[in-house]
């Protein structure tokens, strides 16, 4: 028969990482460029069918602003799942995501399923958090830049200066390996283009019905 399973889900993450946008995409299939910053928290629900079961997500979209931090335990306590969101064009938000993981590991329930979402995957050219090791990336960036230059001898010093001053020298993080080490599953998402948004909720639902 068709079983309905209620599942409390919380979204956590720094201000502006796209928590509300991910929920809006998942629940209503919409995206707005000028999404307002959440005050306190917002509640949504959405169902998802997996095999012959239905998961009814009760979604708490929390506010990323630091002044609301003390409210967070209300939302993650007893949650079946938590989606920790960072903005892959902003390395500081990845550091904040790690703090949320630590807090959940210390204060949350042990069986909360945790997902790490590297959002804004559509803004590839501004990437600051790598999904995987990326020496190759640097190399390609450097090479392709140089090839464009008419005269190599002039191009090389220019490339060097350019690399030092660009994102290529931002300390790149490895989200995938971090997630693995900490028992989260990881996806890069885009609320704007919808890439991996349903997928991340579907993956959570699959893990929930396994429990
Ligand atoms: P708080 O509620 O303040 O914690 O922020 P939030 O995490 O809910 O972020 P929100 O969804 O409000 O998004 C912040 C801004 O980022 C908005 O202008 C969104 O349009 C934009 N944004 C969200 N997701 C994406 C995305 O996947 N790609 C791009 N390009 N922009 C996004
Ligand atoms: Mg919000």
TrEMBL record:
<keyword id="KW-0547">Nucleotide-binding</keyword>
<dbReference type="GO" id="GO:0003924">
    <property type="term" value="F:GTPase activity"/>
</dbReference>
<protein>
    <submittedName>
        <fullName>Uncharacterized protein</fullName>
    </submittedName>
</protein>
<dbReference type="GO" id="GO:0005525">
    <property type="term" value="F:GTP binding"/>
</dbReference>
